[in-house]
Amino acid sequence: MVDLDIDFVRAQFPAFRHPLSAEWIHLENAGGSYVPAQVIDILHEFYISSKVQPYGPAGPAKAAGEAMDRGIELVPATFNCGSDELSLGPSTSQNTYVAANALRALMNNGDHVVVTDQDHEANIGAWRRLSETGIFIDEWKVDPETGLLSVDDLEELLTERTKLVCVTHASNLAATVNPIAAIAKLAHAAGALLAVDGVSYAPHSSIDVKTLDCDIYMYSMYKTFGPHVGAMFVRGELLDQLANQGHYFNSADRTKRLTPAGPNHAEVAAAAGVVDYYDAIHTHHGLAAGSPNERIAAVFELFGAQEATVMAPLMNYLNQADVRLVGSPSVDHNVRAPTIAFVPDGATPETVVGHLATRGIGVGHGDFYAKRLVDAMGIGAAGVVRVSMVHYNTATEIERCIEALAEVL
Ligand SMILES: Cc1ncc(COP(=O)(O)O)c(C=O)c1O
Q1: Residue 255, exposed/middle/buried by CB under 10 A (0-12, 13-18, 19+)?
Q2: Would 390 be classed as within a structural domain?
Q3: How many other CB atoms are found less than 10 A from the CB of residue 295?
Q4: How far is the CA of 117 from the centre of ligand 1 (A)?
Q5: Are both 319 and 234 inside the same structural domain?
Q6: Spatial strand order in the sheet of 136-140
Q7: Do both 14 and 105 map to the same domain?
Q8: Looking at the DSSP assignment, which residues form a beta bridge with residue 177?
Q9: Do 312 and 174 sit in the same domain of this protein?
Q10: Which residue, by CA, sits nearest to atom 7 of ligand 1?
């Protein structure tokens, strides 16, 4: 396998040339990634030339509709799903909220939904609210020491009354990959559907909903180098069955059933730029031909190898430092994403983050809306420090981060 050409990668991102961000080491990518020129150019062009009611017969209105259609046509390759199985909403939190309302119609009073305490609240709270409408919520709990889920525990929760299992592909704090295909098998054997939050997984690995065999899969494009759009796959036949949440006269259009409001036109158009960026990486590295999803998978092989190399020294450092790590201590990219959350022994998370900021390094602290996980692990209100990288981060940046951590820990 060729190595990722990191200079080429960074050349795609104007942030690395801007006076404010060029010298800044961005290690809070799990909160939102930088955006390549492929995305910015579409957004910029849309706002200049086509910021009108889209889908008119000519001129800017025609161009706007065509630009949006391009986003709607290209993004499904990131899931390996049909273009009528994709809903583009404002965020993953709002997508789960809408999906929960839509799925309620398929459940009877007394049915059960499984949620974890490892997930971001986006994939817990909306489902838990179904308890206000006669649904029982079963909690799939983490190991309080490690923050990890065990599939054996899920098996014990599943009954013929379980209608839905909701789980993260990789938590935004524990970052450890959950075995989604195996979970899907268990859920389906019990007659339940599976809804997966891929927000913290999608920036690091490619997704194939057919192989995963999940019914719902969601991720946020602003964390995968794109605009602020929540992308949600719902299996086509399921989309037809659940209660329409859009305008009644649009109910036959699968892509509108879970988008109650009009979409953000410019950002739907700019979502195409994410796939254009993956394509640019594919072409530059001369990767093998394949289906659109296979091409993206080949790109993510390169991203993953780069992330694994860059993550290892930081994981190795933290594994012997005076910190409590959340999730697996593994350096294997197949086991964990390079989102590393820890509780420092000798300093507050806020102090650590403040110190790194003085060294030009951006990391975050708190619970990152995974409050139930932080509470389950008995971590106090100050939360964790989170260092999160993606493929454009360099070994030198991580070296500087380790140096700065060593000064404060
Ligand atoms: C794992 C995870 N799931 C869901 C969300 C919510 O995504 P959004 O901001 O698009 O609602 C986040 C946001 O940080 C997240 O990290």
Answers
A1: middle
A2: yes
A3: 21
A4: 15
A5: no
A6: 86-89, 230-234, 216-220, 193-197, 162-168, 112-116, 136-140
A7: no
A8: 170
A9: no
A10: 92
Assess whether 321 and 379 both reside in one domain.
yes
Q: Is residue 284 part of a domain?
A: no
Q: How far away, in angstroms, is 126 Cα from ligand 1 center?
A: 13
- Binding-site residues, ligand 1, Cβ < 6 A: 91-93, 120, 122-123, 168, 172, 197, 199-200, 220, 230
Tell whether 172 and 93 lie within a shared domain.
Answer: yes
Q: Could you tell which of 199, 372, 388 is best to mutate to test the pocket of ligand 1, judged by most ligand atoms within 8 Å of the CB?
A: 199
Helix-strand-coil split of the chain, %, nearest 5: 45, 15, 40
- Nearest-atom index, ligand 1, CA of 200: 1
- What tokens appear for 42 in the block? 């579409």
How remote is the CA of residue 220 from the centroid of ligand 1, in Å? Answer: 7
Report field, pTM of the whole predicted structure over 0.90: yes
Q: Bridge partners of 112? A: 136, 162
pLDDT in tens, the chain (409 residues): 899 999 999 999 999 999 999 999 999 999 999 999 999 999 999 999 999 999 999 999 999 999 999 999 999 999 999 999 999 999 999 999 999 999 999 999 999 999 999 999 999 999 999 999 999 999 999 999 999 999 999 999 999 999 999 999 999 999 999 999 999 999 999 999 999 999 999 999 999 999 999 999 999 999 999 999 999 999 999 999 999 999 999 999 999 999 998 899 999 999 999 999 999 999 999 999 999 999 999 999 999 999 999 999 999 999 999 999 999 999 999 999 999 999 999 999 999 999 999 999 999 999 999 999 999 999 999 999 999 999 999 999 999 999 999 999 9
Residues 18 and 51 in one domain: no
Query: 94 C-alpha to center of ligand 1: Å?
Result: 10
Task: For residues 319 and 350, state if they share a domain.
Answer: yes
As for how many domains the chain has, the answer is 2
Residue 181 lies in domain = 43-274
Examine the domain organization and report whether 110 and 169 are in the same domain: yes
Is 47 in a helix, a strand, or coil? helix
The CATH number for 270's domain is: 3.40.640.10
**Residue whose token pair is 């951590």:** 405
Pocket probe for ligand 1: among 28, 87, 88, 93, the residue whose CB has the most ligand atoms within 8 Å is 93
